[in-house]
Write a structure and sequence with these properties.
- The structure is a single chain.
- Helices cover about 40% and strands about 15% of the residues.
- The protein contains three helices and three strands.
- The protein has helices at about 5-15, 50-65, 70-75; strands at about 20, 30-35, 40.
- The protein has a three-stranded antiparallel sheet with strand order 1-2-3, with helices on one face.
- A hairpin with a 7-residue loop joins strand 1 (about 20) and strand 2 (about 30-35).
- The longest helix is centred in the C-terminal third of the chain and has 13 residues, at about 50-65.
- The two termini are about 15 Å apart.
Amino acid sequence: MAAVLDRRSLVRWLLTHGFSELPNGSSSHRHFAGPGGVKITIKGHGRQDVSRAVRGNIIKQLTDAGWDREQLRRELGGAS
């Protein structure tokens, strides 16, 4: 079973890896833009855990932008 990744840990990881938070208007979601033109949205409601599917989607986006898949899987807990 993959390690649990919560939203706070994901936000912390994004900020330490060159992402910046974008203004979100009136939404509870948090939007981030990072190196390689990657934009990631994290929901601001519901369970604190990031689902395996969402984690896999984020890893795919980052891999498509040139990040190392194995390093991402180690750091984010590895789906996909």
